[in-house]
Amino acid sequence: MTRPASRSVLAVVVVLTVLAGQFAVHMLQLARKGEHRDFAAVYTAAHVFRSGGGFYDPRMLETGVNRNEALIEAAKRLGTLHAHDNFVHIHAFSYPPFTVLAFSPFTVLAFQPAAVLWQALSLGFLAVAGWCLWRAVPLSPAAGLVLASVALVFEPLENSLGLGQINLLILALTGLFVAALHKGRPVMAGVAIGLAAALRVHPALFILYLAWRKEWRACAWGVGTAMACTLMAIPVVGWDATVQYATLVAPQYARAFVGLGNHSLTGLLINTGVGLLDAVPVDLWRFIGQAASFGLLAAAFAVLRQAGLVAPDRMVVEIAFLSAVLLLATPNTTINHLVFTFIPLAVLLERALGPDRQVALIPWIAVAVLLIGGINDYYAHPLIATGPAVLLGGIKTYGLMILAVLTVRLVRPSGSNATP
């Protein structure tokens, strides 16, 4: 390492140390005073499950609010209710039935210690994800330190930790999938991504990617793991809960919601369309958004060119690209889902700061990081919900688009990487 480079790394280490101290204080405050609202929903659902009650609300499609009386009564007893001004409620449990089994062990603890334990585990999941990306990309010291610095001030990470979301667990499993695939360990890769898909449906896209790349062993383990977890949950949680999830809960969350908090491509088109042309029905904008999202997914696989085996380094880049595309194509992408941008950011930072020194990437990466992680949700003001100002409401979606364009440029030169 040259002297100027070593000085640059030292400067980043100093900045990282300051940010880490600030982050540690914030985590201590969160452990003491945080509401952990999404973890509260999963924790309460696990309690209701253990007592034999139903943990989904079959009327969610009608009311849009969780009115499951068993959940509400349990939340009152457990202290997991929270308030938005005068509206006191608990978030709905929206995950597949298998997820409630995974969180049942937390019910042996009172809510506050269980929430602190989950927060500590979530920080561990973040460390696992970072370690996996460091190994798989692989990251140079400069790129790794910059990525860590970004993480410490990244609003999606702060939001996910504050809510007690499961996204960091899914990110860790996805990171393990990438690292295992890169190291030629198909069984570990398949089990990791299959477990992620059983906990949350979206990572199933990467199982499709394994089939596209003819990584049949990893694909089989992924499908098998996801199916085994799903089928195992049916006799345990009951057929009624399984049917409710498949027919009520999953369709609701597959339908893009209207609001500046939806950062997907469909959300952008709905919000912009309603804001500029409110005479056009919302459902038409939703249909246009969903069609565009399916088109984006098809185009993404077309960009990957012919199906078949490729070199491990190229698979890492392709997964980074698909991670950005998935966030755009998913019907509802909220702020806490954006922790998955760490995957494309890791690849891009290495290309910009590593041996390749593609410095032209740096300003674009900086803009994407600022839009996605540097401007919090307070920008979503009612004043930008209508008229031309609504175009400002899609800034996080614009950041995702930048990441998708930057990573697709890395995917295109594929001829030398193909495996015969």
Task: Describe the secondary structure blueprint for this structure.
Elements (H helix, E strand, L loop, with lengths): L2 H31 L3 H14 L9 H4 L5 H10 L3 E3 L2 E3 L7 H7 L7 H26 L4 H12 L2 H9 L3 H16 L3 H14 L4 H9 L3 H22 L1 H15 L11 H12 L5 H22 L8 H18 L12 H12 L7 H14 L20 H17 L9
Antiparallel strand pairs: 1-2
What can you tell me about this protein's structure?
- With 420 residues, the chain is mainly α.
- The protein is built from 19 helices and two strands.
- It has helices spanning 3-33, 37-50, 60-63, 69-78, 97-103, 111-136, 141-152, 155-163, 167-182, 186-199, 204-212, 216-237, 239-253, 265-276, 282-303, 312-329, 342-353, 361-374, 395-411, and strands at residues 82-84, 87-89.
- Strands 1-2 form a two-stranded antiparallel sheet.
- Strand 1 and strand 2 form a beta hairpin.
- Helix 5 crosses helix 12 (216-237), helix 6 runs parallel beside helix 9 and helix 11 (204-212) runs antiparallel to helix 12.
- It is globular, with a radius of gyration of 21 Å.
- Mean pLDDT is 88; it is low at 414-420.
